[in-house]
Write a structure and sequence with these properties.
With about 300 residues, this protein is an alpha/beta fold. It has a domain at about 50-75 and about 135-310: TIM Barrel. It is about 40% helix and about 15% strand. It contains eleven helices and twelve strands. Mean pLDDT is about 85; it is low at about 1-40 and about 40-50.
């Protein structure tokens, strides 16, 4: 009887130690590539080719494109961005106002101060490298005059959309400029406590404006605000084509990780966007300065292409 009691006690102690060990492990941020509650992998349909046959064309077939936010390479100048993008097979970039232009120009990519010489240099550089500056942001202006300068700047550089967070009482003015210059504006969601943190807020403020006014949805910032990114994307359906861009991110314990390795259901988000007939850019944005940055981006692109091949 005594042996049986000691045996049961030993089992209970082992179970308790195991539970404590699991709790301790969860309390620390995992390394890049580890998974806490990983999203389910997309499953191919009967008509889907083998997994080895996916690539950028599968992604582009849905009307999607990849844009890289230049802040990803903010530890270098904008001049170096095209060479970095070439390594990734990306042809479109989202310019960042805080980045140094480079190429002999020690000034920032700032619409209010960037010299005409620097602008001409950037236009020549991107033309030679085959790179398109598709979007610019996140950027705001302080006065009506500066808002006009912002749109003139975007028009000169061939920028298709400005990503911004205008004050509520500026939205009609910004909409008028967007229509005048035929440049779209994507309202961006930074995390709480910023004014556009929730998709319902964005929808409320732009629903009566023109189609030039849309949303720039950052799935990572929704997650940081305690929201479910998939549910946020579902809320965008009433906008009917007014998604300017999706900044697609995967998260684990608040940290950005390569797509498909974290807690976000990236495959479900892409399927939902497909169901809404979204055709536009997915923005890749990395703030990390890790030496593995390029490989992590490649891993993210690989996941996007693989999911796209499995979506009908």
């Amino acid at each position: 009887m005594l042996r049986m009691s000691l045996f049961c006690l030993a089992i209970l102690l082992c179970t308790a130690c195991s539970a404590v060990s699991e709790d301790t492990a969860v309390s620390e941020p995992p390394p890049v590539g580890s998974q806490d509650t990983p999203a389910a992998e997309p499953q191919p349909s009967d008509a889907t080719p083998e997994a080895t046959t996916y690539g950028p064309k599968d992604f582009e077939a849905h009307g999607w494109t990849i844009v890289c936010q230049a802040v990803t390479f903010n530890d270098h100048t904008f001049t170096s961005a095209p060479d970095q993008l070439e390594k990734l097979g990306i042809k479109e970039v989202m310019a960042y106002r805080g980045q140094i232009v480079g190429g002999g120009f020690d000034e920032k990519f700032e619409f209010t101060t960037m010299s005409q010489e620097a602008r001409d240099y950037v236009k020549q550089l991107t033309a030679e490298k085959g790179i398109t500056i598709r979007h610019y942001g996140v950027v705001n202006a302080k006065t009506p005059e500066d808002w006009r300068k912002l749109f003139e700047f975007a028009q000169e550089l061939g920028i298709q959309a400005i990503v911004s967070e205008p004050e509520y009482d500026e939205l009609e003015m910004v909409d008028a400029l967007a229509q005048e210059f035929d440049i779209r504006v994507g309202i961006h969601n930074h995390p709480l406590p910023t004014k556009y943190w929730h998709p319902d807020i964005v929808i409320h403020h732009i629903k009566d404006l023109s189609d030039h006014m849309g949303i720039s949805g950052d799935t990572g910032n929704w997650a940081r605000s305690g929201l479910d990114p998939l549910e946020c994307i579902k809320k965008l359906e009433p906008l009917d084509g007014r998604i300017v861009e999706i900044q697609i991110k995967d998260m684990t314990h608040g940290y950005n990780v390569p797509l498909g390795t974290g807690q976000s259901d990236v495959a479900a988000m892409l399927r939902e966007l497909k169901s809404q007939n979204y055709q536009g850019p997915f923005v890749i944005e990395y703030f990390t300065k890790r030496d593995t940055k390029l490989n992590e981006i490649r891993e993210s692109l690989d996941h996007l292409y693989r999911v796209a091949a499995w979506i009908e």
